[in-house]
Amino acid sequence: MVRSWFEVEGVEVAEERFSYDVRPAFRALRLLLLSSAVGVAAAAMLGRERPILGLATLMTVWVAGAVFLGWAPWLERIYRHDGPTRTANVVGVRRHSKPEGPPRMTLIILAHHDSKSQNLTLPFRAAFTGAALLGSLAMGAFLVARLAGGVASVLGTFLSAGVVCLSLVALATLRSGNRSPGGVDNAGSVAIVAELARVIPRETPEDVELVFLSPGAEEDHMVGAMRWLDRHADELSGGDVFAINLDGAGIPGRVALLERYGFGRRFSASLSDVARRAATDLGLRVHGTFLPPAMGVDAIPFSHRGIDCLTLASGSLCPAVAAIHSHRDRGENLDEEALENVARLARAMIRRLVDAGR
To answer: In the chain, where are the structural domains located?
Structure first.
């Protein structure tokens, strides 16, 4: 279906099939979460009599979480093996006009086409992740205060440790299924990419190469984007390369720019600036946001390879957000105005990038 949407005049379309096995990553994640819960409990017990030992144990848990939940490039090795799950990346390319040499610029517009359901939908995952982070910080503050000789409650240490442990255990129960229609995540975004594939080639100089990409397996830790980049990264050289990722477009509310992820890591500052300037020209209000640790988006593998990439989304706290990763994520949740605004901003960004690169 996605391939048929991309089959427009002047665009070469292909399916790049692959298989993968995400089970080792899930086993490692559960082991890390449960081990972290044990470490936090041990820190609370040790901190009762020896705050310095409790704090040291808690810091060890923090370091392990920062290393293994931060989407480090070396962790991508876990996903490079073939396995029982089969899917495809759908790619449409408008070739540049130079038969010899690289294009002046390559623009990649992408949106993943897969969806998933989970026993913990997106709001619950975000809530448990936030509780674990804030609870561990509160626990650390109690231990530091006791170490400094201030008035600090042992009860506060144990209560915050309990919140962290319960949150980590809940996150370790995470299971994925295939019951979500994927209206917001991510059919609306794929529709925008398909429409841009129809419109943008006519508006863009022929010395610019256009890639319209719909990866699979985004919901399984961005495997599709990794596989596409592993296969095509060598081709993305010789000129400027920019990628605009669309994810969660169509949630009612303002356009959102996903500018940071993990523990404060930044996506493309230059593309954020382009997006904000383009939004000003269009009279659109946008807001910057971040992706919490352990939550992924296809822009991350691009960032790992040094490619400027920014994710456009939309939304506010509403029932459409609560339905993500559940059987209730249907097309009826998409807001026409939000979809239009994301599409207009992506189109305006492309124009700005092309004009600036001349």
So the answer is: 2-20+81-117+178-356, 24-72+120-174
Which among 194, 214, 204 has a CA at the least distance from the CA of 7?
194
Proportion of the chain in helix, strand, coil states, percent, rounded to 5: 50, 20, 30
3-state secondary structure of 250: coil
User: In this predicted structure, which of 11-15, 74-78, 212-216, 340-344 has the lowest mean pLDDT?
Assistant: 74-78
Specify which residues 244 forms β-bridges with.
Answer: 109, 310
C-alpha 181/C-alpha 96 separation (Å) is: 36
List the Cα angle 254/248/327 in 5-degree steps: 125
pLDDT in tens, 277-294: 999 999 999 999 998 888
Domain 2-20+81-117+178-356 has CATH 1.10.20.10: no
Exposure class string for 241-266: b at 16+ Cβ within 10 A, else e: bbbbbbbbbbbbbbbbbbbbbbeebe
Task: Read off the pLDDT of residues 75-119 as tens digits, 9 standing for 90 and up.
Answer: 899 999 999 999 999 999 999 987 778 899 999 999 999 999 999
